[in-house]
Amino acid sequence: MAQEKLTSKSVMKYRFGVLRRLKESDKTPIKILLLAAIIGAAVGLIGSLFMLGTTWISNYRTQSVGDLVIDKWLVIPTMFAVSAILAMIGYYLVKRFSPESGGSGIPEIEGALQDLRPVRWWRVIPVKFFGGLGTLGSGMVLGREGPTVQLGANISQMFYDIFRLKDNESRHTLLAAGAAAGLSTAFNAPLAGILFIIEEMRPQFKYSLISIKAVFIGAVTATIVFRLINGEAALLNIGQFSSAPMNTLWLYLVLGLLFGIVGICFNRFLLFLQDKFLAFYQNKISRFVLMGGLIGGAFGAIGVYTPEIVGGGYSVIHQMVAGQFTITLIFLFFALRFLTSTISFSSGAPGGIFSPLLALGTLFGGVFGYAVLELFPHYQIEVGTFAIAGMGALFAATVRAPLTGIVLVLEMTNNYQLILPMIITCIGATMMAQFLGGRPLYSVILEKTLERSAKEESAAKATIPPSA
């Protein structure tokens, strides 16, 4: 009996000890992980609404003009006017209310993770959302993926402020979780979202057990919400391809090396145009908005008869892989989309470059595939495998994130059997780009942004008269 009482007291003492330690323990990690889950769900919802909104506006624009305008000679000017108005709305919102919402927004998040750029979520979230609806809905060659990443990080900052957290480490963790949730939502690719933070934002991301768990949770919950709304199908349903034969693997290395050169040319031409646009704008809102209207209107009008060279690019990927284009058309569309995508992004529109990059990579990979088919007819070659490898290769060469590019394309297309040629192509593209002295696109854009901010601050201080 005495032994039983002693055992009972020991059990009670142990239980009270556990409860006391739980009460006295630091609840911050649990709070951060719960917030990461909430943020992921919110980003999944907002990102889904953004995708549905841009698709609806773009479809409504083309259908309504086609239905209302009977005279074929009036279709082009009408489409120009409608697209120009949509684009100018986006450009005006950016220039008037939130300049940091221009472009993809990913360099802004990288700067925020280094405490070099502010995160003003109260103005970025509405401007990026509605401004992006205008520019992407107008038919400009932009993607919704970069904006969704910026929206995700800003939603994280919003929850950080609402819950009145104070430590900077928690802020960095939630920003990374929100960005990962944004990319996961945009591509329906949770693993790519996680890898993007670890690989692309590795200089800024502060790795710890809590931070990496938060990134995982944010990406997973965002993807769950996205799939509840949009379904579980892969984003690019282009069919299944057979594995690449071993004797063709060297061709994927050649393709990767060529993509390294293409990536360098793309980045340098885009940055060149960006400087030219900024010199023309001279920080005047009228020039910025009118140029946006001209670009948006022109691309909207072009899309009436040549939709293959405008828009995000998912439709042209499907057509290319389905074999609907000749090699001449594919090369022509690649050259024209190279021009339209760099113009759209460098002009400062609220929109990303991911989708246009995937489309360009698909087209160039298709050109290479058809050329190889002619040169080596005895090889068992499927042109589509080179197109899929090209998607990730151009992404790897420009953004300099080969692992993210590999996993992203495999998750989007559900062609996991092509992982070996994907790895060879993306690594080849990255090595060639690095050998030629190229630098990651977003890092260069961030540096240029910081330089302009420093010059503007210096100019502002110079105009302030010294106090008496």
From TrEMBL:
It is a multi-pass membrane protein. GO terms for molecular function: voltage-gated chloride channel activity. CDD domains: EriC. InterPro entries: Cl-channel_core, ClC. It comes from the Bacteria. Its main location: membrane. Keywords: Chloride, Ion transport, Membrane, Transmembrane, Transmembrane helix, Transport. GO terms for cellular component: plasma membrane. Coiled coil: none annotated. The chain crosses the membrane at residues 30-53, 73-94, 121-142, 174-198, 210-229, 249-273, 285-305, 317-339, 351-373, 385-410, 417-436. It is found in: Membrane. Pfam families: Voltage_CLC. PANTHER family: CHLORIDE CHANNEL PROTEIN. This is H(+)/Cl(-) exchange transporter ClcA. It comes from Providencia huashanensis. The lineage of its organism: Bacteria, Pseudomonadati, Pseudomonadota, Gammaproteobacteria, Enterobacterales. The gene is clcA.
